[in-house]
From TrEMBL:
Pfam families: Pro-kuma_activ. It comes from the Eukaryota. CDD domains: Peptidases_S53, Pro-peptidase_S53. Residues 195-392 form the Peptidase S53 domain. This is TPP1 peptidase. InterPro entries: Peptidase_S8/S53_dom_sf, S53_propep, Sedolisin_dom, Tripeptidyl-peptidase_I. Gene3D superfamilies: Peptidase S8/S53 domain. Residues 40-63 are annotated as: Disordered. GO terms for biological process: central nervous system development; proteolysis. Its cofactor is Ca(2+). GO terms for molecular function: metal ion binding; serine-type endopeptidase activity; tripeptidyl-peptidase activity.
């Protein structure tokens, strides 16, 4: 269904280019889950030292492969690829299907389990019977999605998990500051209080000036999806105003993706400024995934980046989510597999649960029900709830 706020603007022209993401069926996911459990469960003998229980080899009949894991090491991206890459039959079947329909503008990722393709809407509708591509607008944003379910040929069912860029609308930013919420509700008092500054946050969590990054391999990142951007100049000014009590950095080391000029976004600025205030003096990246194409799914684009970059920060903080009941089981299971791939590489991914904590869904019958957010509900990420201070 179309989320509130999005207006239908008609069907796209047959020649309009759409961008679709084909999630190819992976191998070795059961083994991957076992390895992730071994290094993530505090009750496991391997917890904390990254020691895998036994050498791991690539699935299938291939010979002469080196062990995927050595004692004391997480998997490299290439070792993850050797474990989960689709079977030759899956790769051949999907590529042949696409080429038979004239689809050639495609690229894959290191792990070979995603294909992203550009193709005319008319071709996409022939590939995926039942699909119809329509444009939807919300303010200045424009998206192309299919309001109808799609199908794939029976011979493709065992080779594809899902096709991205079809149905899902962008999720919501899960962290909303109290000051913003009060302002939007019209309840801001005349006597403005700065609220939870970095100094307040660090004091409440018993962080002293010594609690800063000291090792050169410390690294962290935040991901942004909803056409929200930060400005380096704003970050430097913020740190000048609020960073005097701790050693800090004033610049993001790397931006992955587009970072247009223009007005800075409130949520994007908050994410960057506060990760660099609590994770102070630590090398920080920003993944900017606004979605350059109308049919692109920014969250999927971020997952593809993680499957295509050998060197990424160790910790990722993401304030983003969808209602779990709005997503298909196949989609969530595949996203969980992507988080397992990250965990096997030693990455920690933090998702915000939202300031409201455990969400209670209000329904007309009066029987309210729990409505979890995904990916915060994934067992392969760390979910962080909001903290409310009565007197900051």
């Amino acid at each position: 269904s179309v989320p509130p706020g999005w207006a239908h603007a008609g069907r796209v022209d047959p020649g309009h280019t759409v961008q679709l993401t084909f999630a190819l069926r992976q191998r070795g996911t059961a083994r991957l889950a076992h390895l992730v459990e071994a290094v993530s469960d505090p009750q496991s003998p391997q917890y904390g030292n990254s020691h895998m229980p036994e050498p791991l080899r690539s699935p299938g009949p291939a010979r002469g492969l080196s062990p995927l894991c050595l004692p004391g090491q997480y998997l490299s991206l290439e070792q993850v690829r050797d474990l989960v890459q689709p079977s030759p039959a899956t790769l051949m079947t999907v590529l042949t299907w696409l080429r038979d329909h004239g689809v050639e503008d495609c690229w894959s990722v290191t792990t070979l389990d995603f294909l992203e393709c550009h193709l005319p809407a008319s071709t996409a509708e022939r590939l995926l019977p039942g699909a119809e591509f329509h444009r939807y607008v919300k303010g200045q944003r424009s998206l192309v999605r299919s309001p109808l379910p799609y199908a794939v040929p029976v011979e493709l069912v065992e080779h594809l998990d899902f096709v991205g860029g079809m149905h899902r609308f962008p999720g919501e930013h899960m962290a909303v500051s109290r000051a913003k919420a009060e302002k939007e509700s019209g309840s801001v008092r005349a006597s403005f209080h700065l609220g939870v500054t970095p100094a307040v946050l660090r004091q409440r969590y018993n962080m002293t000036g010594d609690h800063v990054g000291l090792l050169p391999n410390n690294s962290q990142a935040c991901a942004q999806f909803l056409e929200q951007y930060f400005h380096q100049a704003d970050l430097a000014e913020f740190m000048q105003l609020f960073g005097s009590s701790f050693t800090h950095r004033t610049q993001v080391d790397r931006v992955v993706g587009q970072q247009p000029r223009g007005k800075a976004g409130l949520e994007a600025s908050l994410d960057v400024e506060y990760i660099m205030s609590t994770g102070a003096n630590i090398s920080t990246w920003v993944f900017s995934n606004a979605g350059r194409h109308e049919s692109q799914e920014p969250f999927l684009s971020w997952l593809l980046l993680l499957s295509n970059m050998s060197a990424v920060p160790w910790v990722h903080s993401v304030s983003y989510g969808d209602d779990e009941d709005s997503l298909s089981l196949a989609y969530m299971e595949r996203v969980n597999a992507e988080f397992m791939k990250a965990a096997a590489r030693g990455l920690t991914i933090l998702f915000a649960s939202g300031d409201d904590g455990a969400g209670c869904r209000r329904v007309h019958s009066g029987n309210h029900t729990f409505r979890p957010s995904f990916p915060a509900s994934s067992p392969y990420v760390t979910t962080v709830g909001g903290t409310s201070f009565k007197n900051p």
